[in-house]
Amino acid sequence: MRVISEKFRQFRSDERGIALILVSIMLPVIIGFSLLVIDWSRAGNLHNDLQKAADSFALAAAAELDRSAGSWARAEHALATLVENTSRFSEAGFTTLTTVEQGGTKNCNSAGSISWCFLKSLPAEDRLPITSANNYADPDPAKGERETRFIQVKVNPAGFAAIFPASFLTGDSASNSMNIGAEAVAGFTSGVCDYTPVFICNPYETPATTGGITLEEAATTRKYRRRQILMRMNGSYMPGNFAFLESPDGNGAQELERMLASTKPRACYSQEGVNTEPGQMAGPVENGLNARFGINASYFGTPHGPAENVRMGAKSVQCKNNKVDITWETDPARGVGLERDSCQIAGTCTMMDKRMGEGDWNFTRYWQANHTVDGVTRPVPAEISGTGDDLPTRYEVYRQEIKDKIVGDPTLNSETGVPACSQQPVTSVDRRILYGAIIDCAAIEASGQKFSGRLNDIPVRAFGSFFITEPIKIDKDIYVELVDITGRGGRGTLDNFLRDEAQLYR
Predict the structure, then answer these.
(1) Domain tally for the chain?
(2) Which domain holds residue 233?
(3) Where would you find the membrane-spanning parts of this chain (predicted)?
């Protein structure tokens, strides 16, 4: 018995081989944990692939959302042609994620591996869901494309089969699989810098009053750009009228005058929304813009000097006490500057509340009056020759005079395009271009907002450039030609002002 007891005690205290027992117990746990790690990594890689696809699709489409007609179709074209992502580790194996163009006729659609919706806004907080009632763009493309700022892209969920035998624990074979998807929201932001603090009510907002012509058509077609537009600042916000934007330098009379006269205003504005400033300051507007012609320009000094071509129809010019006093010519044959359209001269215009011309200005008479030297009229350069629909714009003629160095040609009154009173012209920028935000004022007021006070985050149709055809002679009235606009309908001359960016929001 003593021997047996001794053997049992030795056996009980013997620890040899215990590692094998522990390994046998822990081996299923180790294998299970390893399988979970592998599954977690595979699922993470699959989700990463799907998320990259969603991000890429959203960014490609967002870059086309410039709020112009056809932007939905262009966004869908970008989805279909610019992006092709792949995913791994789904039940389908190696998969190429693609889509197909759907024509841009719906605010929500799907094709191939993805679905998407065009959005006019995002919830105030990221935790809040995007809903059709609050955030989707209008289903009608004519309206929806104008208000679309974002696109929501969802990649169709992919099936994922786990290696870890969860069904062994639950008895449910479905426990071994799951669906993994991804979603992204991207938007397009566009802004400009070095812009004057001015907005213009879109003169082409109502095509019925402009011969059926839209802003985009006017910007890209010479015969419509030739139309002279009378802009007014009279407190009413109808097509063609203008007012002010919030300025970083303030909106007092002196600050506004300096901004309007400046060669490079310190102002940046976003197409997503601008803040307007009420005010009727005709004096600062006249002084600031006329400084670009060298009229009273000495008040601002050399940095705000006149344009290199200020031909404006002066009969006589006198320099008095650092001021420029002008008597205006009324006989077109002797040179009245870049003439107005015929209906504006006769007061018979019918478009845009009788303030838009037909673009039929008398170029031949202008050229003879301003470029006849010693009884011989200069030949018209090929770049601006033409009649009828091919008649040049005033801006093209003005630039041609600078290019051909004929700014100094005198009229019968001895007026030239050279700045008066020995003022030094500014050549680094075009001083006779007025830049401003173009806003659909009628639509804004129809939505219930009134311009009588300050308005915040007002959407911009486009940023535009306008050629000032003559100095301000009557308080508040500015005669201009449309030169170009930003965005899809423009001709690219404003690209150096633009700050465009497609970015992810969710």
Answers:
(1) 2
(2) 193-499
(3) 20-38
Ramachandran angles phi, psi of 314, nearest 5°: -85, 135
Which residue, 155, 173, 191, sits at the end of a domain?
191
Q: Are 246 and 375 in a shared domain? A: yes
Both 218 and 161 in one domain: the answer is no
Positions in the chain whose pLDDT score sits under 50: 171, 298-301
Q: What span, in angstroms and rounded, lies between the C-alpha atoms of 347 and 357?
A: 10
Which pLDDT does position 64 carry in this prediction?
86
Check residue 261 and give its pLDDT: 80
User: Residue 204's pLDDT is what?
Assistant: 94
Q: What's the confidence (pLDDT) of residue 338?
A: 95
Exposure class string for 382-409: b at 16+ Cβ within 10 A, else e: eebeeeeeebbbbbbbbbbbbeeebbeb
pTM for the complete prediction? Answer: 0.74
CA–CA separation, 204 and 212 (whole Å): 9
User: Tens digit of pLDDT for each residue in 300-326?
Assistant: 445 578 899 999 999 988 887 667 788
Question: 237 CB contacts (<8 Å, ≥6 apart)?
Answer: 201, 243, 441, 442, 444, 445, 451
Whether residue 304 is found in the same domain as residue 429: yes
In a domain? residue 420:
yes
